[in-house]
Recover the amino acids of this structure.
DNA sequence: TTATGGGGAATCCCCACAG
DNA sequence: ACATGGGGAATCCCCGTTA
């Protein structure tokens, strides 16, 4: 006798070829700025994954208003427990939508990965082994082996110029980022944004070389042209559908001046939920939820937007411990994916078609 | 016993609330230009539907290069068979896609309503009761009781500046418009386009008033501002998803100069196939094609893009002569329309549930 | 290679509902 | 009236096919 042997559930719908990256953090050594690197190299050599030069330079720039000189070259050989940034809550990886500037503000902020409908959480970091005042800066970087500044902007609470800056008081050891939003810069405008960032970093680089961060540096026509060209190149193939948060912390000394820079820490990637393929996969409705163990039955499945060439329907059986004891895939081709919102497939046979 | 009683076919899927307009043509009297009307009035009084003033003025302007004076005021009381434009083939109403400028040229032209896959036809007109040379002009107008010039442009063969102009030789009594395309002007740019048209028509109006079509007229700041304001108003609620072709003909005398203007004739409306709701309704796939006469069976239907609030599924039975002997509607609500591409409905009972 | 057609991505707009 | 979330319209880009 045929019987309903396999149940279908939402988790059974899976996309092929998706890698869910885990969170990353950099080594805990003090960051040491290299004065030979303009941040414009294309080398993919990243045995020692480092913070991109651009980024730190930019941050120094932003802190410029403090009018004091940070000794970027300080070496610490201190082996004691060193301060470092820890991400205590990652941002949600999926389900958040990047909004365009034209969509206006206030469409809800980025939540934490543990967020629930009626118990919302938010991305948060903690500065370990340190209890004094600091300034925390968050900006967006690309999801690459060697991350670069991203064209998108952080907007929302405490944000300006695409960057989020929070001054942390003594004793406040956790920083929670409620209402952080990712503003989706259009592909067209992304070149401009990146160009600006490059120009600033090149200026800053000059200033660092001159050893004076308080005097404006100027770029030659040539350098400007180069910045533009480079920006256009970067903008052209920058992935606009994924960003990472880059957290940086500047520790303040007794007088409130910046004394140390902690190594940057990157969050796990955040995928734009509006982007094709980045959607949370979801089965909305099916015309049958059970059938013959022999398989080969046609099922109409209505789903959220999928990619006809990168989607499959997976049947799984798990034991009490959640181990997969059986799996098989629904049978269909790209042609059976209707307008990205429905799939017509044939059921696979159950492992024991007579059971 | 239950049996398959009603068949489903593509024609059974119908939208509510769609009016398919029939073709229209204006009265056959000679067109008489009113010199008091700038074409800018908003009156919806159209007992005698007339050609909008803008249009004709524009055409005169376009013909200006001929450097001769057309007597626009000629009255004919002639009762003999008068020349007139007849549309011998209407354009296809549905299934044609308006293309944006950015989409580049050559995506296929507007076809005739009788066009078939391997026997294509095109919109065509005939000038009746006349065999001499003429110039035929086609442009786009709105689908309103009082048509206005449309923001969209005609492009393709013989087109320039959004207008199609064909010189017709003696003896060629049919003009066929192969490769006419409608260029979709963006809502933003539509105001500019319309403003330009209004400015031209106002200039022309002045020139007409001055009785000299060969000398350029100038507008005051005030008039320009008024044109702009009016254009913005018109652009804001102009329907960009539908146009009509406006055919005009200028008969030439023995020396090749324009001697008479025939009354304009409008085609039936042409709906942009890419626009929501203007799609050809189509059932792509269903999970069952027959069922119980008692009805109340759930059917998953995959379709082309529909509007969840303006769609229904109709079951019909026709006799041999095509008369409807029974009809009923599938039962579903907007919530059952999945992302515009699928409908889950319950079948209605057949007229005789026991048969 | 262009002509023809079509799918869907990127951008933008606006609505419904909850607080 | 705003904060949040979401659907879909308007615009744009690009691909496979066929003539």
């Amino acid at each position: 006798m045929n019987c309903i042997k396999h149940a279908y559930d939402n988790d059974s719908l899976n996309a092929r070829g998706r890698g869910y990256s885990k969170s990353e953090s950099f080594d805990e050594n003090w960051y040491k700025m290299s004065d030979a690197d303009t941040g414009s190299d294309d080398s993919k050599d990243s045995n020692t994954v480092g913070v991109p030069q651009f980024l730190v330079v930019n941050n120094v720039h932003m802190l410029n208003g403090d009018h004091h000189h940070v000794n970027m070259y300080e070496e610490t050989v201190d082996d004691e427990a060193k301060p470092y940034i820890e991400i205590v809550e990652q941002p949600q990886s999926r389900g958040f939508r990047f909004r365009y500037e034209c969509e206006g503000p206030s469409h809800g902020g980025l939540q934490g990965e543990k967020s629930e409908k009626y118990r919302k959480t938010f991305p948060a970091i903690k500065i370990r082994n340190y209890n004094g005042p600091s300034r925390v800066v968050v900006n967006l970087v690309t999801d690459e082996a060697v991350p670069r500044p991203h064209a998108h902007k952080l907007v929302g609470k405490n944000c300006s110029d695409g960057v989020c800056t929070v001054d942390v008081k003594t004793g406040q050891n956790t920083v929670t980022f409620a209402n952080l939003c990712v503003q989706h810069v259009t592909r067209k405008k992304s070149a401009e944004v990146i160009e600006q960032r490059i120009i600033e970093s090149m200026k800053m680089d000059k200033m660092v070389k001159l050893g004076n961060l308080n005097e404006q540096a100027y770029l030659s026509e040539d350098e400007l042209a180069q910045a533009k060209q480079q920006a256009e190149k970067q903008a052209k193939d920058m992935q606009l559908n994924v960003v990472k948060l880059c957290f940086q912390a500047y520790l303040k000394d007794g007088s409130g001046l910046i004394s140390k820079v902690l190594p940057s820490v990157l969050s796990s990637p955040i995928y734009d939920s509006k982007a094709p393929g980045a959607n949370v996969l979801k089965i909305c409705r099916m015309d049958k939820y059970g059938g013959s163990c022999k398989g080969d039955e046609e099922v109409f499945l209505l789903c959220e937007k999928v990619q006809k060439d990168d989607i499959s329907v997976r049947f799984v059986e798990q034991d009490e411990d959640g181990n997969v004891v059986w799996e098989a895939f629904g049978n269909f081709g790209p042609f059976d994916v209707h307008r990205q919102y429905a799939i017509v497939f044939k059921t696979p046979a159950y492992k024991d078609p007579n059971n």
In short: The interface with chain A takes residues 284-285, 287, 298, 300, 302, 304-305, 338-342, 344 of chain B (CB under 8 Å). Residues 97, 105-109, 179 of chain B lie near DNA strand C (CB under 10 Å from a C1'). Chain B is about 15% helix and 25% strand. The domain at 6-15+281-346 of chain B is CATH 2.60.40.10 (Immunoglobulin-like).
